[in-house]
Every structure is written in C-alpha cells, then in structure tokens.
Amino acid sequence: MVIAEKIKGFIAGNYRGFITFLSLFILWSGVTHYQLLSPESLPAPQVVTATFKEVFSSGLLGKSLGMSLSRIARGFLIGCSLGFLVGAAMGVSRSAERLLAPLINAVRQVPIIGWIPLIIVWCGIADMSKITFIAIGAFFPMVVNTFDGIRSVPHGYLEVARVFEYGRLRLLRSIVVPGALPAIVSGIRLSLGASWMLVVWSEINTRSDFGIGDMLWSARESSKMDLVIVCIVVIGAVAFSINELLGQIESRLQGWKRSCR
Amino acid sequence: MKLEQLKNLTFALIIPLVLLIAWDVATRLELVSAQLLPPPRMLFESWLEMQRNGELRDNMEVSLLRVVLGFLLGAGVGFLLGAAMGVWREVELYLSPLFNCVRQVPIVGWLPFLILWLGIDELFKVVFIAVGTLIPVSVKTLEGIKGVPASYLEVARVFRFGWARTLRTVIIPCALPSIVTGLRLGLSEAWMLVVGAELVAASAGIGNVMTIARRLFQTDVVLVGVIVIAVTGYLMDRLLGLLELRLLGWRRANGAH
User: Fold this and answer.
1) Which candidate in A35, A57, A231, B56 could, as Cys together with B50 as Cys, close a disulfide (CB 3.0–4.6 Å)?
2) Is the CB of B94 less than 8 angstroms away from the CB of A118?
3) What is the assigned CATH class of domain A39-259?
C-alpha cells in the first residue's frame, strides 16, 4: 500500500525526466537505424551494449578499472594524509598558518593539469608520476578543508573548554575534531572526486598497460566510438558512486552537527 | 596593525626563501643534475629569452583566445540553460535528470568523444572548454534562482509586478552572487582545460610549449610554463573578483547576505 503510493509519487515526480531520456534514446536509435550519421561517429545502441559486454566479460574493463583504482588509492592516501596533516597544523597553530598559508596559496594557483609536464620530467612516465600527480591533486582540497574546518569551530566551544580546564589533547579529541569533522569529510570527498578525474588525465598523458584512461585514449586512437561511449559511461558511473557514497557519510555527519546545536 | 602585517610578511617569506636558497645551493654544488632542476638564475634567463623572442606571447595569445571563446560560449549557454531551468519548473523537470546524469562525467571523459566528432583543431578545443564552463555556470545559475526567498516573490506579486519587472528587480539581483560564483568556477575550469587540451592535442599554445619542452627535457621551460599558467590563472580570477566587487559591493555594504 505504502510502497505503491511511493512508487506512484516517484513516477509522478520523475516521468518528465524519463520522457527526455526516452526521446533521446529513440532519436539515437533512429539516427543509427537509418544511418543518418556514419557508424564511426555514432554507433548504434546495440553495438555499444555489445562492446560493453565484450570488455566486461573479457576482463579488460575490470583490469583497467582495478589498475586505475589502485593508482588512485596510493596517490590519494599520500596526498590526503599529507594534506590533512598540513591543514591541521595550520588550523591549530597560528605560526604554522603564517609560515605555510602564503606558500600553499601561491602553489595552489597552478591549474592542476599544469603539473603534468613537470611531473613527467621529474618522475618519468611510469606509475610513480601518476601517483605523484594524484597526490598533488588530492593534497590541496584536503588542506583547505581541514584548515577551514578547524577554524570554523565556534569560539564559544573553545571558551567552555578553557573554563573546564581541558588539556590540549582532550580539547582536540572532544571539541576540535568533532567540530571539524564534517568539513574534513567534505575535503575527502572533494579530493577523492579530483583523484578520479586526475587519474584519467594522467593516464591519457603518460600511457601505461592498463587503466581506464588508457582504454579511453586507445579507443580514440583506433576511432572506436562505441568503446569511447562505454568508457564515458563507466567513468561517469564511478564518479557518481564515489560522490554519492561520501556525500551520504557527509550528510550523516552534518545531521549530527545540526541536531547537536 | 602595521607591525602585525610586517610580521606576517616576514613569516610568509621564510619558507620560500629557505627553499630558494636550498635550491640555489643544490644546483651550485651539483647535488641534482641541472637537467632535472635548473638553477633559479637559468629559470629567469629562459623566461627573459622566451619573452624576447615572442614565444611566450604568441602562445599565450593562442591559449587565451581559446579560453575566451570557449568561456563565452559555455557561460552563455550555461546561463541560459540554468536560467531556463530556474524560471520554468517544467523545463527543470524535463531536463534536470539528464543534466545531472551528464554532469557526473568528469570533463576529461568527453575529450576523445569530442575529438572523434570535431577533429583535433580549434573547434574541438573551444567546445571542450565550453562544456567545462557550461556545467558550473548553469548549476550555480539554477541554484541562485532557486534560492530567491519565496517572500520576496510574494512581495512582488502583492505589488503586481509584471513578469519582466520581477525578473529585473527581484530575481536577478538575488541570484547574481551565485551566478558570479559560477562564472569564477567556470573560468578557472576553462583555464585548466585549455592547458589539458593543449597537452594532448595542439600545435600551439602554452600547454603545447610545455609538452615540447618536456620532450626535449628543458625543465627550465617547463617550470616557466608552470609559473606562467599559475599567474595567468590567478590574474583571471582576480579580474572576475573585481567584477564581483563592482556588481555586488552593495550587498556587503548593506550588510545583507
């Protein structure tokens, strides 16, 4: 009963969106069916699904995704933890902020892709350069968010802690960390999202054996539009899942914060 | 106050100075090869050289032209799309699921798609940049318009403002800060994407200069390139920041927001 109501509500709210998707799909099928565009520039939907099944069952997709994700994991862990440490140091201590903030703000101005040529010169074109690149990309959002998070802990809380004569450790554990946590999690979300984009950029620029960016770029080089579309969908789906997963955690933490106030 | 600023400045300069000296000493003592890390002097000299022979100016002109064209195209379309979705509920219901789906894909994913459709010439770069600009601009425009307080709209209704007048006097001023934020995000995205596009497919532009220098192991040129794109990106953002202050200075003065 309730479920039926919910489904009804969902359909009533969303059917227009489905209409858009459906008409696009019909347009796509129609164009390819009557061959208004060459199959090279727009392959038929069946061809795309067949390609997807093929790369999926041959294990190519899984292996490429696995390689890219392992690069992300390594680069992200390094960049994110360094970013957290630097951001936390800057947030807790004024002199660290004075020392580091101007430098970090200056280096942050480099559009992240601009590092690629320099990293290739310094680290070569193997995994090392990709990991460094991802680490740099993950570092900056983390620094900024950790710093902002710690600085946004309300003054009143700190004063209460002083009144109760909390020690430094206890102050950190029971006030600063919980207060800064939502911002830190949103930093993690931002830098993980950036990592996913950056792994594709780095794999396009420095080719390797496997990786989703490699798959994408070799599909372009051999003009396989069907494979390009499969890659786009996969890249989008992974980006969406990362964002959604961490967004859930973030909103849960934020919810806690709101109910506390 | 003056003293405080001076103190901040000295603190800010400590680490860069130490790094610079370490860098200079390391290259003088040849602790690292000059090919990997050219001495600071050499960096300056190659910058001067690139300035003099026009290499820097010509390539920057190419890149900036691409950014401007792509940004204008993307911001224009993005604004119209966002505004249409914000003003007409029906348009939003029809388009936003598709739009939200498309914008999940990191822009880099569209790179091969656009190359296969548009070739690797100017058109592709401009469209690529435009796509990157379009997304933040339309998201922020939509957000800005949806964020107009309902009570303002009610007041406009009470005073029987016409459609155009409501738009001009209520919706646009309310949505403007968010729209300008979208433009700033879009511009920095555009600047990053032009470098990215030029790294993989170009015969001119600052990204291309860096790629060639990287292949020839001219680390000094690569470093100059990194600094130049950072400074340019910063200046472009400042420019929009000034525009924001011009347009929205009254908000801060009024204590609104």
Assistant:
1) B56
2) no
3) mainly alpha
